């Protein structure tokens, strides 16, 4: 694991955006995997800035997102579909037909998951996947004790994750209790991973993912086995490692 420690959230965001931008410059047909949550918001803002300066072209880029709540419509402001449009897709020239997001209102979950996996394979595979990490060590929505062999599937969210994510909703009762997420195997199949973490609240999860044993109890620990992972951590997130 290549661990980069930076001063603060802004520096983390700038570093991450420049890595994504160089990926697109080097391969304009890149397949990018995006994450949601608070952590990558700054990265997406920086990426939009770089795009507006005219340095990158997303017209041939293909995107996949890690996860989506179930069941929630893509028009719902709490959905990850809405988030991605709001923070990134509405501001860059990525083509709608190249954007792939899980449908949180699908009727047939199994079909949705299988076709998502097939689309990733047909695209040639994800070149660069952005990841955050949950306070309990989850990646995507693969909660502790997730199957390391799992592909895209329906997950039941942990109480801790529901509480942590309730800050985006009016009340904890409004937070969906399920989600559809790429599995650990899907994530481990990407070519390059960029994991971002900021703040003291992530230090424990980062410590266990980087220094702890590789165990389904800490889904992020599996990343120790991936051949190309870069972690960009601010000082607070890194302080235990
Ligand atoms: C969420 C998402 C993850 C995200 C993580 C951390 O629940 N499913 O993809 O990386 O939890 O979120 P945040 O960046 O808001 O701390």
Which features characterize this protein?
241 residues; alpha/beta; Rossmann fold; three-stranded antiparallel sheet; 32% helix; 18% strand; globular; binds 2-amino-2-deoxy-6-O-phosphono-alpha-D-glucopyranose
Please tell me about this protein's structure.
The protein is an alpha/beta fold and 241 residues long. It has one domain: Rossmann fold, CATH 3.40.50.1360. The protein is built from eight helices and ten strands. The protein has helices at 9-26, 41-52, 80-87, 109-122, 159-165, 184-188, 203-211, 235-238; strands at residues 2-6, 31-34, 62-65, 67-70, 99-100, 128-131, 153-156, 178-181, 192-197, 229-234. Strands 1-10-9-6-2-3-5 form a seven-stranded parallel β-sheet, with helices on both faces. A three-stranded antiparallel β-sheet has the order 4-8-7, with helices on one face. Helix 2 (41-52) links the parallel strand 2 and strand 3. Helix 1 crosses helix 2 (41-52). 45% of the residues are buried. Bound molecules: 2-amino-2-deoxy-6-O-phosphono-alpha-D-glucopyranose. 2-amino-2-deoxy-6-O-phosphono-alpha-D-glucopyranose binds next to helix 5.
């Amino acid at each position: 694991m290549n661990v980069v420690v930076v001063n603060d959230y802004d520096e983390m965001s700038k570093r991450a955006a420049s890595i994504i931008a160089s990926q697109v410059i080097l391969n304009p047909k890149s397949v990018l995997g995006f994450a949601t949550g608070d952590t990558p918001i700054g990265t997406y803002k920086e990426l939009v800035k770089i795009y507006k300066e005219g340095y990158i072209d997303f017209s041939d880029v293909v995107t996949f997102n890690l996860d989506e709540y179930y069941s929630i419509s893509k028009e719902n402001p709490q959905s990850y579909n809405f988030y991605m449009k709001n923070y990134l897709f509405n501001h860059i020239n990525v083509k709608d037909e190249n954007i792939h997001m899980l449908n949180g209102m699908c009727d047939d979950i199994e079909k949705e998951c299988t076709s998502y996996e097939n689309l990733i394979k047909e695209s040639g595979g994800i070149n660069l996947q952005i990841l955050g990490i949950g306070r309990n060590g989850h990646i995507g929505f693969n909660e502790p004790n997730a199957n390391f062999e799992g592909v895209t599937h329906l997950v039941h969210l942990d109480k801790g994750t529901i509480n942590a994510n309730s800050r985006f909703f009016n009340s904890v009762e409004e937070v969906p209790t399920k989600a559809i997420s790429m599995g650990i195997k899907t994530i481990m199949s990407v070519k390059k991973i960029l994991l971002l973490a900021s703040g003291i609240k992530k230090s424990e999860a980062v410590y266990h993912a980087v220094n702890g044993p590789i165990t389904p109890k800490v889904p992020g620990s599996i990343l120790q086995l991936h051949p190309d992972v870069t972690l960009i951590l601010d000082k607070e997130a890194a302080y235990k490692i």
